[in-house]
Amino acid sequence: MPDPVRLRAPARTLRTTIALMLAGLCCLGAGIDPASASASTQPRETSVTIQSRILSTGHAVRSIRIGSVGRATGAHCVDLPDPTPPEYGWRRTDRRLYQDVYEVVSFSVPGCRLGFGMAGSHGYIDTRRGDRWTVYGGIPPKRNA
Fold first, then answer.
1. Cα angle vertex 54, ends 98, 50, to 5°?
2. How confident is the model at residue 122 (pLDDT cuts 50, 70, 90)?
3. Contacts (Cβ under 8 Å, ≥6 apart) of 12
4. What is this structure's pTM?
């Protein structure tokens, strides 16, 4: 007659092996889809409208320098075009930006050149919170509702 202890050990080992194999397959199945994992880590782009009021005092914003906060990418200059028709009263531009926080500095001359008459506004825009922003001379940018 076979020893009952010997029969139980292989049966227990087989059950343990099957359970471990099933757990391993479940873990592998959870990590098979690399496309969905990489899509969530890539920043999304959004269309952002930046505008400024035309002022007769000469301190109107004509250009802005936009730079990412916390990234190694350089800042770039954006000229705000004259409105069409001129009596509209706002300079406006649309830009494609990643959803992130950006540092914005405004200038009263095109080309983001320093000089007499700098609009002097400095602040941050968060494109994750809004896609319409107004820049001013002397105060930080504000999000439009």
1. 10
2. confident
3. none
4. 0.62
Helix (H) or strand (E) holding 5: helix 4-30
DSSP 63-115: EEEEEETTSSPPPEEEE-PPPSSGGG-EEEEEEEEESSEEEEEEESSGGG--S
Mean pLDDT of the chain: 75
Does an H or E element contain 47, and which? strand 45-53
Query: How many other CB atoms are there within 10 angstroms of residue 129's CB atom?
Result: 10
**Do residues 29 and 110 lie in contact, with contact meaning Cβ atoms separated by under 8 Å?**
no
Please enumerate in sequence order all residues whose Cβ is within 8 A of that of 124, keeping only pairs 6 or more positions apart, or say none.
69, 101, 102, 103, 104, 140, 141
Q: Which one of 2.60.40, 3.40.30, 3.30.1890, 3.40.710 gives the CATH number of domain 44-143?
A: 2.60.40
Q: Which amino acid is at 140?
A: P
> Taking the domains of the chain in order of start, what are their residue ranges?
4-40, 44-143
CA distance 31 to 126: 33
Q: What is the pLDDT of residues 5-43, one digit of tens each?
A: 554 555 566 677 676 666 665 555 555 444 444 445 666
